[in-house]
Amino acid sequence: MIALFDSGYGGLTVLKPILKALPEYDYIYLGDSARVPYGNRSPEMIKKFTEEAVEYLFKRGAKVIIIACNAVSSVALRHVQQKYLKGAEEHDRKILGVVIPMAEEVVKTTKNGRVGLIGTRATVNSKVYDKEIAKLSDKIKLYSQATPLLVPLIEEDYHKEPEAITILKKYLKPLKSYNIDTLILGCTHYPLMLKAITRTMGKKVKVLQSGDLTAKSLKSYLVRHPEIENKLTKGKSLTILTTDDPSKFKTFTEKHFGMKIKMPEKVDLA
Ligand code: DGL
């Protein structure tokens, strides 16, 4: 089974392209809606929540866990990889994040070397994108902007309202003055505001999101690692888990992702 984990709805923007690219497997999606947003919390708290989620998903039979959340990938990915993939477990299961595929794409995309990043406080403060991009190129200047109100607006299904668009424009204004040619959506929730973001940034700015990039990188990972791929069950099933109201999760998913889903299961991670 392949599992995806996010603090809420954001990871669904990664799940959708993965289902399209690799439809044959069984999937489980966990949204920790009861504790969203993660991005305004301390790294210690994010690590603790991530440990709970990862332990739970391995118990449910996951062999690959995609951390479909930038905040978690930024501050807790290495921590859970070191804690849960020790010794023999290293060849038995895998935990992957969303940051490295994005950093690789940034280097391929930018022409003028001026790149913007929007993300939660946890992601921006971690400087993970600065570090990963610097490993690949010394010619890129990254301009980061924390946008902490966007996840709560999206989780409340308020992100298409004029007030939300006003907040978004205010966040993007400094980035517009830096003459960037590429913008990283450093949060998997933000593709839900993609139209408003691209409209605000203008045609000259290429907006990058994690979904397709992560799907492509997972596909190539499974080809390179048959020892993991062989362990994945192929039943085309999708189970959605949430730590909060399942019917709210179902309504949001069906409204914004155009997919019909079974009633999510409510789970308790703590
Ligand atoms: N989707 C998460 C991300 O990519 C949102 C984090 C949060 O809950 O604040 O960063």
- What gyration radius follows from the Cα positions, in whole Å? 18 Å
Shape, per Cα inertia axes? globular
**CATH topology descriptor of the largest domain:** Rossmann fold
The helix-strand sequence is: EHEHEHHEHEHHEHHEHEHHEHE
Q: How widely separated are the two ends?
A: 23 Å
Strand order of the largest sheet: 4-3-1-2-9-10
Heteromolecules bound: D-glutamic acid
Query: Biggest sheet, open or closed, and with what strands and sense?
Result: 6 strands, parallel
Oligomer: single chain
CATH class of the largest domain: Alpha Beta
List segments where confidence is low: pLDDT < 50 over at least 5 consecutive residues.
Answer: none
Q: Would you write up a description of this structure?
A:
The chain has two domains: 2-97 and 211-266, Rossmann fold, CATH 3.40.50.1860; 99-210, 3-Layer(aba) Sandwich (Rossmann fold). It has 13 helices and ten strands. The protein has helices spanning 12-21, 43-59, 70-75, 77-84, 99-109, 121-126, 128-136, 150-155, 162-176, 194-201, 210-224, 226-229, 246-257, and strands spanning 2-6, 27-31, 64-67, 94-96, 114-119, 141-146, 182-186, 206-208, 238-242, 265-266. α2 crosses α4 and α9 (162-176) crosses α10. It is globular. Bound molecules: D-glutamic acid.
